[in-house]
Design brief:
This protein is an alpha+beta fold and 157 residues long. It is 31% helix and 27% strand. The strands form 2 sheets. A 3-stranded antiparallel sheet has the order 1-2-3, with no helix packed on it. α1 crosses α2.
Length: 157
């Protein structure tokens, strides 16, 4: 197994299907793929579905922590998400819109529900997506990449 650093995710082609990827996130092994309508097998969530899952999970976890800290009767949180790209006001660029509907179960007051909505808007992933970002890419030195053993990739099939 590749050396794992905290917070480092490794993605490599799985060899299954045209676009299928094996994802290593700490001790977790996941699959990412394009949907069948985009020409692959749909063996796993798409990259955008993973992005939405991260946003939804962050919101739900943050709400759970907040409710526990305040001893609020939040029984369950469910977050539904979708993404769209809209033209920007300048007409030449685009703006990503992440839509999130939060379902809160429990005997909460309206004031508590509104406070939880505000807290969800400030979860760490929401903050990351809401500010400008820079993606720094560079090529690794020539040579074989650090990959997972074939048995782990085969297990994803």
């Amino acid at each position: 197994m590749p050396e794992t650093r905290q917070g480092v995710v490794t993605v490599a082609e799985s060899g299954i299907g045209r676009y299928s990827q094996v994802v290593h996130a700490g001790p977790h092994v996941l699959t990412a793929d394009e949907p069948e309508l985009n020409g692959d097998s749909g063996a796993g969530p798409s990259p955008y579905e993973y992005l939405l899952a991260g946003l939804g999970a962050c919101a739900a976890i943050t709400l759970r922590m907040y409710a526990e800290r305040h001893n609020w009767p939040l029984r369950r949180t469910t977050v539904e998400l979708w993404h769209e790209v809209r033209p920007a006001a300048d007409g030449t660029s685009a703006v990503d819109h992440f839509h999130r509907t939060i379902h809160l179960e429990g005997d909460l007051t309206e004031e508590q529900r509104l406070r939880l909505l505000d807290i969800a808007k400030r979860c760490p992933v929401s903050r990351t997506l809401g500010r400008p970002s820079v993606v720094v890419s560079h090529l690794a030195d020539a040579g074989p990449a650090v990959t997972a053993p074939a048995a782990q990739i085969d297990a994803q099939a």
